[in-house]
Specification:
The chain is mostly beta strands. It is built from one helix and 13 strands, in the order E-E-E-E-E-E-E-E-E-H-E-E-E-E.
């Protein structure tokens, strides 16, 4: 079989720095997530979908809705409900860093994609971190999102920047409200 290109050709430079980037909900239906960096276009967290086992992929769909420019989405993680034991949910949970141009601050953001109808939930801003320059200077960064067996969502991030990192947030209501659980270095 010939190679199949997943990301659209218009995405001339991708920065898919992620813990996980692909979700298969059936043997035929899958989602590929990536950070898209087009020339003269703000960077975006996007996905493409296949419904025929990867033979063809649909158009790119933007996940982050931040309106401020420059909108730079990067370093992301995904978690599918059914990766959690005994969970039958249909959502893909996404966490990512986003420099939304707000005084140069970079934010940790969350949003869910419901695979039952491909609808995106509300984008939630968890916390501002630092300036983009300080984040790009980190020599050890990471992010992970997961759903626990009890239904709580968790986002963890790591950096070498000054402040309360690594950090951990928890949502007990499906991602609408997040609580900063605290600096993991202090635990």
């Amino acid at each position: 079989m010939a190679d199949i290109q997943i990301t659209p050709t218009s995405a001339n430079n991708t920065a898919s720095s992620a813990m996980r980037t692909m979700v298969w909900i059936t043997p035929l239906i899958g989602y590929q997530f990536y950070a898209r960096q087009d020339t003269n276009v703000a960077e975006a967290l996007c996905y493409v979908k296949t419904s025929n086992g990867g033979q063809t992929w649909g158009s790119s769909v933007k996940v982050n809705s931040s309106a401020l420019a420059p909108n730079r989405a990067y370093l992301f993680s995904v978690w599918y409900d059914q990766w959690t034991p005994s969970d039958t949910g249909t959502k893909i949970h996404l966490g990512w860093y986003d420099n939304a141009g707000d005084a140069g601050l970079t934010y940790m953001r969350y949003r869910a994609l419901d695979t039952s109808n491909d609808s995106l939930g509300t984008e939630v801003n968890l916390q501002p971190f630092g300036t983009l320059a300080s984040i790009l200077g980190w020599n050890s960064v990471g992010i992970s999102v997961t759903k626990a067996r009890g239904g709580n969502l968790h986002v963890w991030c790591r950096s070498n920047a000054s402040g309360s990192y690594p950090a951990h947030w928890r949502s007990t209501d499906g991602g609408a409200i997040w609580t900063n659980v605290g600096n993991l270095n202090a635990l």
